[in-house]
Amino acid sequence: MDDRTAVTQVLTDYYNAFGTLDVQRILSYYHEPCMLVSPQGVAALPSRAAMAAAFTPIMEGLRARGYSRSESSMLHVKELSATAALASGIAVRYRADGQELERIGVSYLLHKTDDRWKIAVTVVHDTDNVVRSE
Predict the structure, then answer these.
(1) Contacts of 83 (CB under 8 A, 6+ apart)
(2) By C-alpha distance, which of 73, 81, 134, 131 is closest to 104?
(3) Which helix (H) or strand (E) segment is 9 a member of?
(4) Is the per-residue pLDDT at 114 higher than 70?
(5) Residues 84, 11: Cα–Cα separation, whole Å
(6) Which of 31, 59, 75, 127 might form a disulfide with 120, Cβ 3.0–4.6 angstroms?
(7) DSSP element (H, E) containing 36
């Protein structure tokens, strides 16, 4: 499997894990440390405990809004080096009844360690600012 396909698979698996709203299931997809950048600010997360503390309120908020699952749309992946890749697309979130809850632009900087890609940086942004690969 080439790296672009591997990154896409990691993010597909991540979205499936995220859909469970179980914080512990998503932590293995993140590099330690990692960083979250969103309209609310920047959070440097040095450990799994810090990641869990950051993601728990996000997931509780989604649960309260009837969230059921996410899909990636328009995903573009660009290999930056042998150990870095940029992925950008739109996360489409759905309610349990299948209705669309929201769309958010999201870009990931992934780092490859021990032949495994992990998310090092997540940036939440407007849906019209997806970074396109060449």
Answers:
(1) 111, 112, 113
(2) 73
(3) helix 3-18
(4) yes
(5) 14
(6) 31
(7) strand 30-38
